[in-house]
């Protein structure tokens, strides 16, 4: 897979290193000469250019990329790169970094963004996830279809504790994708049971999040009882 990363700062270089270790081709683009540190990621391709310029993206052969990651520290730049990657070069998947959570609403399909990653939101979500049991935590937003990656740790008081996955009537537009039980990562099957303390990861439509939380959390017990 060929990946272009706009922004060769610490974030961009870190992403590049991970992708290279996994066998992907990576091109790092940055307009600041001081950011071009070939020795830090020697296996990557480097391009000194402005990723907001069509001529630069032509030189980068963006049309050959499977993924573009807009990882600069400037939200305006990330939005422009995302829009150009999607509309001018037809890049199948565009991932954009959100630096200011107040701008998150802009990072959507209209701007060519498939996945928006807000570091401040993700960090706060991980803090919430560490201290909250029975509360739905939004980890990641997907622009297409208005879907989110959400997590909930099943409380002991949940009415669904001990229930098999296949016996649960999940809300529409909701899919259970992973069960994390201790050190195990499980691809759920209909025969797997839901156990207290399980970390459940779902891809769910935003409109279904409250319904999903009510289904799984301890509040459902008190509401029914």
How does this structure look, described?
By secondary structure, this protein is of the alpha/beta class. It contains six helices and eleven strands. The protein has an eleven-stranded mixed sheet, with helices on both faces. Strand 1, helix 1 and strand 2 (25-30) form a beta-alpha-beta unit. One of its GO terms (cellular component) is plasma membrane. Keywords: Ion transport, NAD, Potassium, Potassium transport, Transport.
In short:
This protein has 225 residues and is an alpha/beta fold.
Count of individual beta strands: 11
What proportion strand? 25-35%
Poorly predicted parts:
219-225
Terminus-to-terminus distance: 53 Å
Rg estimate, integer Å: 20 Å
Record the strand order, biggest sheet: 3-2-1-4-5-6-7-8-11-9-10
Helix content: 25-40%
**Secondary-structure class:** alpha/beta
Q: What's the overall average pLDDT, rounded?
A: 87
**What's the total helix number?**
6
Overall geometry:
elongated
Largest sheet, in brief, is: 11 strands, mixed
Oligomer: single chain
Topology order in helix (H) and strand (E) letters = EHEEHEHEEHEEEEEHH
């Amino acid at each position: 897979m060929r990946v272009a990363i706009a922004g060769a700062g610490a974030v961009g270089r870190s992403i590049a290193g991970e992708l290279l270790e996994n066998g992907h081709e990576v091109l790092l683009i940055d307009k600041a000469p001081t950011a071009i540190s070939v020795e830090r990621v020697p296996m990557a391709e480097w391009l000194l250019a402005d990723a907001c310029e069509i001529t630069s993206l032509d030189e980068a052969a963006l049309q050959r990329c499977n993924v573009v990651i807009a990882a600069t520290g400037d939200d305006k730049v990330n939005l422009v790169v995302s829009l150009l990657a999607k509309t001018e070069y037809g890049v199948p998947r565009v991932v954009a970094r959100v630096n200011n959570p107040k701008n998150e609403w802009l990072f959507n399909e209209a701007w060519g963004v498939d996945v928006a990653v807000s570091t401040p939101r993700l960090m706060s979500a991980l803090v919430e996830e560490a201290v909250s049991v029975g509360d739905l935590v939004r980890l990641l937003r997907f622009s297409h279809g208005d879907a989110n990656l959400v997590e909930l740790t099943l409380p002991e008081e949940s009415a669904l504790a001990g229930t098999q996955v296949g016996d649960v009537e999940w809300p529409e537009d909701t899919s259970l994708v992973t069960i994390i039980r201790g050190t195990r990562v499980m691809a759920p099957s209909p025969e797997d049971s839901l156990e207290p303390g399980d970390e459940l990861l779902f891809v769910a439509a935003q409109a279904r999040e409250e319904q999903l939380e009510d289904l799984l959390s301890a509040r459902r017990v008190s509401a029914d009882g």
